[in-house]
Specification:
Strand content: 5-15%
Low-confidence stretches: 90-95
Structural class: alpha/beta
Shape: elongated
Helix content: 55-70%
Number of helices: 5
Radius of gyration: 19 Å
Distance between the termini: 34 Å
Order of helices and strands: HHHEHEEHEE
Mean pLDDT: 77
Largest sheet: 5 strands, mixed
Length: about 170
């Protein structure tokens, strides 16, 4: 799923660059404009399909990690925080400071790319592969989404969330 997310992000970036380039060239050639419009329509369709596949994969991951809204609400009520361990944890693997900084940067980029989460309202951290999350979100579902995104980041072994639910007014 990491590869898919990276590929999707790269595709969006390349699409934007291509869009800019074609806009410049299309004004010079009417035939190019028609080809561009057809390509843009195909790109939109493919992007929608990719987003749907990503959404389905994320839903499956949320179910696997017990990150459904009712489970998050119950755990927040009992403990005041969410803790999940990555199933692929190697445990003894040493994670250096570069890996931690890279993980935090990757998490922030994923939050910025996610339309339902606000990267400004969430603060990730990482020390030796142990990620932390703080901030506020609009619903328990958003906590689950944020935790799943963090666990799907290279270098992250587990995550502890103290994110609070504060519905937007």
């Amino acid at each position: 799923m990491r590869g898919f997310s990276s590929g999707l992000l790269l595709g969006i970036i390349l699409g934007a660059v291509g869009f800019w380039y074609v806009q410049i060239k299309a004004s010079e050639h009417p035939e190019a404009q028609a080809r561009y419009e057809q390509s843009a329509a195909q790109l939109g369709t493919r992007t929608s399909q990719a987003a749907g596949n990503f959404s389905d994969a994320l839903r499956a991951k949320l179910d696997t990690l017990d990150l459904r809204s009712d489970q998050i609400t119950d755990e927040l009520t009992r403990n005041g925080k969410i803790f999940r361990r990555n199933a692929q944890d190697i445990g003894d693997q040493a994670v250096n400071a570069y890996t931690d900084a890279h993980a935090v940067a990757a998490i922030k980029a994923k939050f910025a790319a996610d339309i339902t989460l606000s990267a400004l309202d969430l603060t990730p951290g990482c020390t030796q592969g142990h990620a932390t999350l703080s901030g506020t979100v609009a619903s328990p579902d958003d906590i689950g989404r944020a935790v799943a995104i963090v666990l799907d980041t290279d270098g992250v072994r587990d995550v502890t969330s103290t994110i609070e639910v504060k519905p937007k007014v």
